[in-house]
């Protein structure tokens, strides 16, 4: 399928990243892409709608995490974690299909992923220090939500490989299983890179005809069933479920889980559940333009900033206050509502203007001049002089 997304979209798995100039917001809203003369491109409403709903779920999941001492809160939390990041990874893969390793793509990879990663690693490190939290040994060990940027950087670099090999999805599944069978470290969130790889590769393979199938009545009926059954099973079997299955941050070896009869069947089960719920989400979200469609282009602002809102709120004693005042169930409802409200707040122009320096930094100055390579040679001309 010819891509219906802009070059800006496919830099980070969403369409939030764009040239940080005064016309950036209008540029994004029109779907314009640099390099096409400013001609507007039609945006994919399905993807923007899905991204907005997913970022709401991300915010809600993190907002209720300190309240999961009640069964209903823990069940909601676990169910969200079954699929929200795998779905984001799949969409990121879909929006990465045009990556070809060219100089322009590498430049954008450095400026829209690597640089924000380092900036927000530093921001979250400062917040952690102020709250008395321990820090990783180096910036190569992602801090909390920054793991996604680190993983996306690596996944994006591998796109030409997946476009070249014969059975990319099968190979990615094999790598995911192997990743669960070996000890992994914390550098660049290795376990998540390997474990969630099938979702990224699946996104690379998705075509318009696959998305069209999602509109059919039988798929939507199946999707409703998947949502209801998984939600009910999560609630019923909550005591037997470990969060580590849906965090994907440690291998089976690191968790001391036997490969059989639990480890590998468990990994298969949670991969199937994540794929099923991702398909269900893409089927059930509106495929038409809605009031929140445009906000789907701004999800990276919410993703990178919402953690600060929650960390500062926790540091100031918000959770103790609301729990004492309203009780556990009242606190759960209030935090869910506030998470949705703050999702909209973090998409507002004044928030984007105030934080663009971090989310969309001007980083052209870090890029060196292009080194020309002579025909038939892999050695830059400048290195032969």
TrEMBL record:
Polar residues: which segments have biased composition? 1-18
So which domain of life are we looking at? Answer: Bacteria
Sequence ranges assigned to domain Acyltransferase in this UniProt record: 47-346
Q: Where is this region: Disordered?
A: 1-40
Entry annotated with the keyword Transferase: yes
The residue ranges crossing the membrane are 46-64, 76-97, 109-127, 139-158, 218-238, 268-285, 292-313, 325-347
Could you tell me the keywords of this UniProt record? Membrane, Transferase, Transmembrane, Transmembrane helix
**InterPro entries referenced in this protein's UniProt entry, alphabetically:** Acyl_transf_3_dom, Nod_factor_acetyltransferase
Q: Which Pfam families match?
A: Acyl_transf_3
GO MF assignments? acyltransferase activity, transferring groups other than amino-acyl groups
Q: Does the keyword Transmembrane apply?
A: yes
Q: Protein name, please?
A: Fucose 4-O-acetylase-like acetyltransferase
Whose protein is this, by species?
Lipingzhangella halophila
Lineage of this protein's species?
Bacteria, Bacillati, Actinomycetota, Actinomycetes, Streptosporangiales
């Amino acid at each position: 399928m010819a891509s219906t997304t802009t070059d800006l979209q496919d830099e980070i798995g969403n369409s939030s990243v764009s040239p940080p100039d005064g016309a950036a917001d209008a540029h994004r809203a029109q779907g314009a892409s640099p390099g096409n003369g400013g001609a507007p491109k039609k945006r994919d409403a399905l993807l923007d709608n899905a991204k907005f709903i997913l970022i709401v779920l991300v915010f809600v999941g993190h907002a209720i995490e300190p309240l999961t001492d009640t069964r209903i809160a823990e069940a909601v939390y676990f169910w969200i974690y079954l699929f929200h990041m795998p779905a984001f990874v799949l969409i990121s893969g879909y929006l990465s299909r045009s990556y070809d390793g060219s100089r322009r793509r590498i430049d954008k990879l450095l400026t829209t992923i690597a640089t924000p990663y380092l900036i927000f690693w530093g921001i979250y490190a400062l917040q952690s220090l102020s709250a008395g939290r321990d820090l990783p040994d180096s910036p190569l060990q992602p801090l909390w939500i920054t793991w996604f940027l680190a993983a996306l950087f690596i996944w994006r670099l591998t796109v030409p490989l997946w476009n070249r090999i014969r059975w990319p999805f099968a190979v990615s599944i094999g790598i995911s299983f192997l990743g669960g069978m070996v000890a992994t470290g914390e550098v660049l969130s290795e376990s998540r890179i390997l474990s969630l790889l099938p979702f990224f590769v699946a996104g690379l393979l998705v075509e318009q005809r696959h998305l069209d199938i999602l509109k059919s009545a039988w798929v939507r009926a199946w999707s409703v069933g998947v949502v209801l059954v998984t939600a009910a099973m999560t609630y019923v079997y909550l005591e037997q479920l470990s969060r580590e299955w849906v965090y994907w941050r440690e291998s089976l070896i690191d968790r001391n889980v036997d490969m059989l009869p639990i480890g590998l069947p468990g990994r298969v089960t949670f991969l199937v559940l994540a794929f099923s719920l991702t398909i269900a989400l893409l089927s059930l979200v509106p495929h038409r333009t809605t009031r929140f469609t445009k906000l789907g282009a701004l999800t990276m602002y919410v993703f990178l900033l919402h953690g600060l809102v929650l960390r500062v709120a926790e540091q100031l004693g918000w959770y103790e206050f609301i729990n004492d005042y309203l009780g556990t169930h009242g606190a759960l409802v209030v935090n869910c509502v506030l998470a949705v409200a703050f999702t909209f707040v973090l998409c507002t122009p004044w928030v984007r203007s105030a934080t663009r320096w971090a989310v969309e930094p001007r980083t052209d100055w870090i890029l060196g001049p292009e080194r020309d390579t002579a025909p038939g040679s892999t050695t830059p001309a400048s290195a032969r002089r």
